[in-house]
Amino acid sequence: MNILNPVALLAGLLAIPIILLYLLRLQRREQSVSSTMLWQQVILDREANTLWQKLRRNLLLLLQLLTLAALVLALIRPYINMPSTLSGRLMVLLDGSASMLATDSPPSRFEDARSAVGKLIDELGPNNEMSIILVDGSPHAIASATTNKSDLHAALDHAQPSPSPSNWNAAIALASASSGGTGADGASTTVVVSDGANAEDLQQLAGNVRFLPIGVNGDNLAISNLSIRKTTRGLAAFIRVTNLGSQDDKVLVSVRSDHTLLDARTLNIPAGQSENWTINGIDPQISWVRGSIDEAGHNTLLIDDVAYVVNGISNIRHVLLLSPGNRFLEQALAVLPNLQVTRAITPSAQPDGKPYDLYVLDGVSMTLPVRANAMVIGNQSFFTTSGTFSNTAFARSEQHPVLDSVDWRSINASEVRRVNAPAWLKPLVESTSGPVLFAGEMPGESAPLGRVVLLPFALRSSDLPLQVAFPILIANSVDWLAPPQGLNIAASIKPGEVVALPRNTIVTLPDGNRVAVDQRGFAQTDQSGVYHASYKELNTPFAVGFSSPAESQITPHPDLQIGGSTPSSEVVPQSSQREIWGWLAVVALLLLITEWWIYQRGVPALQRKKF
User: Fold this and answer.
1) Which distant-in-sequence residues (6+ apart) come within 8 Å of 246 by Cβ?
2) Fold of 221-312+547-552
3) 490-537 pLDDT, tens per residue?
4) CB 541 within 8 A of CB 288
5) Are 151 and 143 in contact (CB under 8 A)?
6) What pTM does this model have?
C-alpha cells in the first residue's frame, strides 16, 4: 500500500491531548466527614483522577483513539495498485442511437452500456482524465476532460438515448477536436461503447481504440412501410411488416384511423422476410392512419413497432392546364407543392366528375363551371377587347398578393390586347399604353367566374418566361386563385428533425401540449405521433415516426472493424491507483457513532477495570 499525502500523518499527534484529558485528575473541594465507610467509592474515584495515575480500562478512550486513527489514515490518502483495463486520457464514445433501446440486454442495451462506462469511471486513477461523447443524431460531449468521478457519474446518469440514427462521422470529428494533448502518463485511448449496428463509419477512427460490445441478439420486427392512396372506393392503406431477426414469428398487427380501429390481423412472417397487407374502403375525410405491432414473440426494439401517416390527399390542389404546349408554364406549375396538374388540349373534368380547383387557360377558351377560379393567358373569350398595343414600358403597379416579390419593370411584350375589363377586374400592372396584368373576384355566389388572373398577351410574344419574376408570378397566382388547405410540410418527419414552419405557428404535440414556433423553426419532434400546426387560418397535421430500416437492423457486431482492424474487447492488464480513503472515512464515522452511543448509555463496569 502507498500513500499520496504523508504530511497528514502529523494529525496523529492529536492522540496526545486525548490521552492527557484522561490522565489529568479532577480538582475537588476537601470536606471533613465523621466516617469514610460510606465514601469508599469516592476515595477510589479520587485516586483514579490523581495526576499521572495508571489508566483504567476505558472503552470511550479506545474508541476515540481508533476514530482518530481512521481519520488520519483517510487524510494521508492511501491507495493500492489494482489491475485496470484502461489508463491515461480516455475519450469514450457512448452509442445513444435508436438501436440501443433494444431490450435483449435487460433492461436495455443503453443501460448495459451505461453500466460499462460507469465501471470505467470507477477504475480511473487520480491523474486519469475522461471525456464522454453521446453519439446520436447530433453527437455532443456530456463530460469533457475531467478527473472528477462524481461529475462523470452525474453526466452519465443524465444521458438518454435518442430515437434517431447515430452520426458517427460527426462523433469522430468532435472527438478529434476535443482530444488535443495527452494524459498525464502520455497515453490516450478512445473507447467505443456500442452494439456495432450500422457503425461502418467507425472505420475512420484511428489511434489506440478499445471496443466494448453491447447486445445479445438481433431479433426484431418493424413496420417498414405505411402509406395511403386514393382509390375509386375511398382510401387504401398499405402496411408492410418485416422480420429482421433470425427466427420465424407470428405477429398481431392493427390499423387505426383517427383513433378508430379499422382492422387487425395476425401475420406469419418468416425470418428475414416481409408480409404486406392492404385495407380498402377507408373514409377519404380521415386525418391520419396509425399502424402498430401489438403482439410478437421475438421483438426487442419497440420504437419501430408504430408508424403514422397523415392524409395529405385532401390537401392536394387539382389544376387543369389547357394549352397547346408551353414548357415554361408546365415546369413552373410542376415544381409547386401539393399541386396535381392535368394537361389537356380540350376541356375535360376530373375522373370523379368534380370540378378542378384551378383552370389555367393558355390561349384556349372553354366553358367553366360556376365560380371556377381561372388563370387566363393570351387569347380568351371571357372579356371583350378593343385592339392591341406594343409599348409595354412599365408605368406603375398595385399592392396585391399576386405581385408579392415580383419585379415587373424589365418585362416586355410585343403585342398586348386592350381588355374592356369589368369593374371587379382590377389592373395590377400598367404600362404607358395600358394594363398588362389584371386580377379580381366576380361577386355573387352563382357568378360564372370566381377569382381570375388575366395576362392579356401570349407568353411566346414576351420575355416574361425568361425573367426571374415568372415562376414567382405563377406561384403567387396559384396560391391566390386556389389557396392551399394547409402548410407545406414534408409527409415524413423523423424524430428530432427540425420542421420549417412560419414564426408564431402554434403546434399541438401528440401529448396535447401546445408550443409556439420561433424564428428557428420547430424542433420539438421527439415524440412519435400526429402533430397539428395552426397558422392563421391554416391547420395542418403532420406525423413524426421512427422509420429507419438501418436502425431497425439491430444485430450486434462484437467483431466490428475499426480503423481497418478489429479492436480488442478483452481486458488488458494495466496498473491503476485505487484510493481507499472513502472506506476509512466510513469506518471513522461508525466509530464516532458507537462512542457517542456508549457515552449516552454508559458502561461503568468496563471503565472500572484496570489495564
Assistant:
1) 217, 218, 219, 271, 272
2) Immunoglobulin-like (2.60.40)
3) 767 888 888 888 888 999 999 999 999 887 788 888 888 999 998 877
4) yes
5) yes
6) 0.61
